[in-house]
Each structure stands twice: as structure tokens, then as C-alpha cells.
Amino acid sequence: MSHDPVIEPIALPSLGGFRLLDVRELAAFEGDHPASAVRVPIEVWEAAAKTGETSFENVDYWERAIATLGVDGQMPNVVYDDGRMTEAARVWFILQYFGARTLILNGGWPAIRGHEDLLATAERPAGTATFRAQPGSGPVGLVDRKSLAAELDRDVRIFDARTKDEFAGEDLRRNARGGHLPGARLLPHSHLLDSGLLKPAEDLRELLTAAGFQQGDHVVTHCDGGGRAALAAAAVARAGYEDVRAYYLSFADWAKDESCLIVRD
């Protein structure tokens, strides 16, 4: 069964009631946002996911953080960012991982600015909701470094969503080592987008096929720090693949462990 995690702006009214979550920076949110929108503190969430005490293993922390947004686990949530799509995908991944039904708004804020008619059924929460986290219950799973390292010699297809230079090890970003995971297939996240929109399912399937992926593959996506990996996972799910996980901590986490093999072509 396909789980398309992306919704087109024109389809928003078909949801009935939904929560609207804004993933832009605080200044942008304060400058202009729909009356029904609640801001996700993305700077806090991004740091928390990479910190031991508040990592995804700390279910209580994330349950509280999600409930604070008014997310109750029943009403669907729609997340949008400034149009880059990666930050909305990051929040989508976290919410769906813990069991909150969530969709990424294709095109982000630019696609709904000035279109209040599309948001007529969005409901602003009255305050903190009751949310019970169910880790791993979403359509896209999570994998950590240790588990992925153990799977490299098995039937796993690694989707590297970074740039060509990162993949080749020419752009280290902040890492001490550069290159790519053994067997990884490169498909830069920018190739998944067209004018700020995630491409349709058919186009994504063609891209994935050309990159060496096939329906039925167990696909693990990664980037350097989570956002592009989440968007890649959303793209793979939109393309109809059903066995998808994200290595959310991604290459930055892999590179710091000297026991993890890195390939440089």
C-alpha cells in the first residue's frame, strides 16, 4: 500500500480538519503566517534529535514536545517550510516516526501565501494536547549507525541524498572524513525537486530506477545531517516504495566513527 507523504495545496480542503505546522524561522513566522498555524521550534528539534539525552530514544521528551504543538494523534497535520522542503521533511519524519499522521505541503509557504481559502478547514489548537507516542509506527522507519553497519552486506540499498562533491569526499562540510558509505547510490536531493516542488510519483520512480533502485528494495536514505535524508525518504515513499527507513543522523554520524568504512572513488 502506498503512503504518499506529500499533499498538494489544492488538496488541503479535502482533509477536512487539520493542524497547520509552520517550520520556518521565528522571524519569518512572526512576519507573516496563517492565523491557524502553530510554529514548530525547528532549531530546538534539530539540536535535540542529535543530542544523547533528547535523542529519539527519549520517547517522553518527544511526546511532550509534540503534544505542546497541539498534535493529538487523531487530526492530520500539515507541515510547511520556506519552500526548501528539507526542514518540513525533517519535522514530518519525526512526527510520523512517533505515530502522528503528517503530510508535507508541496511547495511550502510560497504555495499557500495569500491563499487563505485553501486553509479554511485548518484548526488552531487551544493548547497542549494529549499525545501518546508510538515509536516506529509511521510508514518510514529509523535506522541507527550500528544497525546500518551490520546490514551493509545484506539486502539494503543506500540512497545518498548529498551533493556530488560530498559523495566524492571533495566537500567535507564539518566532517573529519569524506566520501560515501559502501554500496551507496548517489541521487542528490535537488534532483527530486522541480521549481520548489517535490516531483510527481512517476518522475520520482524514473529517477530512482536510473539510480539503481527497484520496487521491493529495502531503501535507507541519508544525507549529512537529516533534512535531505528525510526529504529523500518522503520521495521514495511517494514513488510507491514500501520498505523505507532514514538514517537520520546520517553521514556526520557515520564519519565520526573510525570503525565505519568510508569509500572514496
TrEMBL record:
Residues 14-121, 152-263 form the Rhodanese domain. Keywords: Plasmid, Repeat. The keyword Repeat applies. Signal peptide: none annotated. Pfam families: Rhodanese. InterPro entries: Rhodanese-like_dom, Rhodanese-like_dom_sf, Thiosulfate_sulfurtransferase. This is Rhodanese family protein.
